[in-house]
Amino acid sequence: xxxxxxxxxxxxxxxxxxxxxxxxxxxxxxxxxxxxxxxxxxxxxxxxxxxxxxxxxxxxxxxxxxxx
Length: 68
Description:
mainly beta; five-stranded mixed sheet; two-stranded antiparallel sheet; 7 strands
């Protein structure tokens, strides 16, 4: 899938972002992706693992979606 929007990276650790996938595009399910925010799971089709590093993964980047 391709990212529909840019996703910020964490400088020192990888993190998972809940996404909704439609027409080959992965869109985060909401701005709050904390582990305590279960509502972001409601529309999630999968998870994208965002690798550690500076900056962001740009919109349009190819990503692997791990199905839920």
